[in-house]
Amino acid sequence: MVLSSADKTNVKGVFAKIGGHAEDYGAETLERMFATYPQTKTYFPHFDLGKGSAQVKGHGKKVAAALVEAANHIDDIAGALSKLSDLHAQKLRVDPVNFKLLGQCFLVVVASHNPALLTPEVHASLDKFLCAVGTVLTAKYR
Amino acid sequence: MVHWSAEEKQLISSIWGKVNVEECGAEALARLLIVYPWTQRFFSNFGNLSSPTAIIGNPKVRAHGKKVLTSFGEAVKNLDNIKGTYSKLSELHCEKLHVDPENFRLLGDILVIVLASHFGRDFTPACQFAWQKLVGVVAHALARRYH
Q1: Collapsed DSSP state (helix, strand, coil) of residue A141
Q2: Confidence of residue A1 (pLDDT cuts 50, 70, 90)
Q3: pLDDT by residue (tens digit) across A46-76?
Q4: How far apart are CA B147 and CA B135, in angstroms?
Q5: Most buried of the four, A29, A62, A135, B144, by CB within 10 Å?
Q6: Burial profile B83-94: b = 16 or more Cβ within 10 angstroms, e = fewer
Q7: Distance CA A112, CA B46 (A)
Q8: Name one Pfam family in it (chain A) (predicted).
Q9: Per the CB < 8 Å rule, is A121 touching B114?
């Protein structure tokens, strides 16, 4: 699965539009993921996952920053996320299925806050981008 | 049998009560065909699917989307017997239509995104939970009679 130049333009456009809200989107993505797919909480036994949790907010910020970084280096996502990829392979070992779940929740957040932004074409590009990020983060698992 | 809490039932029916089945159905199916283009394999007789614009404007896509979401309404009306509700449809999708059940999961996820875009803040995390659960149960019921 390859990102076309139209896909790249669409993705960059999304993150430009989201701008400073990226951190909030990250936090809400995690909140939705934990609520919708409770099994994802198993990776955060050390977190307070209650509503408004500072830890979830902080972690959402990190997740958003990584997505922004990937979008800013969309011609070389593997390079941009190389360290994160190592981390996921060696330490975190989050099962690959969960990246899809996170992706779904991120799309829901964008859709609910910015329905006009998520046209079918942009939806397709963003979905591809999120898949690509997941692929990079699990690339070194075995 | 799937257990639905009173809250889940309420979240499902309150959203469903405000859904324009024709519009949402058309949009969900169009997005499925656009976001996951390989799903077009089932619709070779639908005419022009050559671009997102063509897909969105395609009257067969709109009509079929409406049909699919109308059928989804049966699940909402029969939450306590979704398996029974879709027994015949499951056989049809296996024996006549030859649709990989994975496609039901894909469409379910797309439907959730369409609902989020229509309902915005009202599509709370609790709402999303109930609806992801529902689309999962529907997908499972449609796959149940496969052999």
Answers
A1: coil
A2: confident
A3: 999 999 999 999 999 999 999 999 999 999 9
A4: 21
A5: A29
A6: bebbeebbbebb
A7: 31
A8: Globin
A9: no
- The answer to whether A57 touches A27, Cβ cutoff 8 Å, is yes
Which positions ≥6 away from A4 have C-beta within 8 Å?
none
Asked if B25 and B68 count as a contact pair (C-beta separation under 8 A), the reply is yes
Q: Where do runs of H (alpha helix) occur along B2-144? A: 6-16, 21-35, 52-57, 59-77, 82-85, 87-95, 102-119, 125-143
ipTM metric:
0.87
Q: Where are the domains of chain B?
A: 6-143
Token duo for residue B131: 């609806």
Does the pTM of the predicted model rise above 0.90? Answer: yes
Sequence-separated (6 or more) residues with CB below 8 Å from residue A21: A113
Stretch 70-99 of chain B: residues touching chain A, C-beta under 8 Å = none
Q: Measure CB to CB from residue A108 to each of B30, B31, B113 and give the nearest one.
A: B113
- Tokens representing A36 are 């919708």
Tell which of B29, B55, B127, B132 to mutate to test the A interface (max A CBs under 10 Å): B132
**Residues of chain A with C-beta less than 8 angstroms from the C-beta of B109:** 104
Residues contacting B85, CB < 8 A, separation 6+:
B74, B75, B78, B141
Q: Domains in chain A, please, with CATH? A: 5-138 (1.10.490.10)
From the candidates A7, A32, A128, which should be mutated to test the interface with B, based on the most B CB atoms within 10 A? A32
Which of A108, A120, A121 minimises the CB distance to B116? A108
Amino acid A125 reads S
| Whether B129 contacts chain A with CB within 8 A | yes
